[in-house]
What we know:
The strands form three sheets. Strands 1, 2, 3, 4, 5, 6 and 7 form a seven-stranded mixed beta sheet that branches. Strands 8-10-9-11-12 form a five-stranded mixed beta sheet. Strands 13-15-14-16-17 form a five-stranded mixed beta sheet. The radius of gyration is 24 Å and the shape is flat. It is an alpha/beta fold and 402 residues long. The chain contains 14 helices and 17 strands. The longest helix has 24 residues, at 259-282. Belongs to the protein disulfide isomerase family.
Amino acid sequence: MSANLVNFFILKKQICLLLFMLSQVSSGHEDDMYTIQYTQETFLDAIKKENNFVMCGHCQRLSPTWAHLSKIYTEKDDNVKIAKVDCTIDSTLCREHDIAAYPTLKFFKAGESIGIKYKGARDLSSLRLFINDMLESMSMVLIFTLYYIFCYNKDHAPSPPEPVNGLSELTEESFHSHVGKGYHFIKFYAPWCGHCQKLAPIWEELANSLRNDDSVSISRVDCTLFRSICEQFEIKGYPTLLWIEDGKKMDKYTGQRTHEDLKTYVSAMHEKSTEQSTNKDESSEITIHTVLSLTGDSFEHSVEKGLSFVKFFAPWCGHCKRLAPIWEELGRKFFANENVHIAKVDCTLNTSKQLCYEQEVDGFPTLYLYRNGRKVSEYNGPRNLDDLYGFVMNHLRSHDEL
């Protein structure tokens, strides 16, 4: 948290409630006349003056509730302002709050830099009750922060970056959608780094020489601007050159940084990856039968009969990667049971994004249990094989007893 924000905590009695959203989605509810838009430049000045409740202006499910809440406090209470911060525009402001799961609601007491999570309901009456309780009971500065993420409408997902002479410039908004599928050779760098400056024209030459090759993408990420991406891939020095396949780091290049050596490496990695993919295809029948890969087109038909345990995930999600082998093993344990289906849905696919929104998937991984096409439970326990297996068996037995 910035020093300016901490210093502000001791200024005066007030309430500030914030939502930092990660993307804009058109939901049919346009910006209302009561809600204020904050930016990096206006945020600190605004919250010093008045009480604020800041929320996503384009969240599909909460948008009408938020507009109603904004109208109420705009007309009846000058001490509370309803506003919003767009994190796709003001990413620096949002990064200060280090949010790891969505939705997350926090409030901060005076002088404390660690927030306390709010776990109440997000309906209008609960939000009003919370605000009123805070106004009545708090004799200190209170900042209440709501961090929210939602599934993309497929027509409004971030557009992939347009390469210039074969080189893609990646940002926090475009990175995961860009590298989620296919083969990628990516340079992580800092503009002030001497070795990076020396490599720059060579990297551009490499990208230009492969610009007509659709099988591999050459990209770069400025770690001084997009620190969270570089932290995710554990970048410790500059430049770092990584080979990424379907969102996963497969190799780190440590050879000579000449155009010829780099191009030879790309060719070798692509050939190796293609061979491994061919070998996997030979055994794909087993994988398909143990864990079903579903999309928006196949989901309804696949879960309409029996018990279906479905993992909604994203390839870049660390928790999803750790769960993947356990999920495959769970599928094998129920392989012979015709009444149980273990399945997965990749929410980053265009064919699945609307499905994930409709199923109210707000974070990854999300594990839902369906019986005869109807969602009956969400699993929130430990993600080990025994507990997951026991969860399914308990639902299977309870149904048999009926």
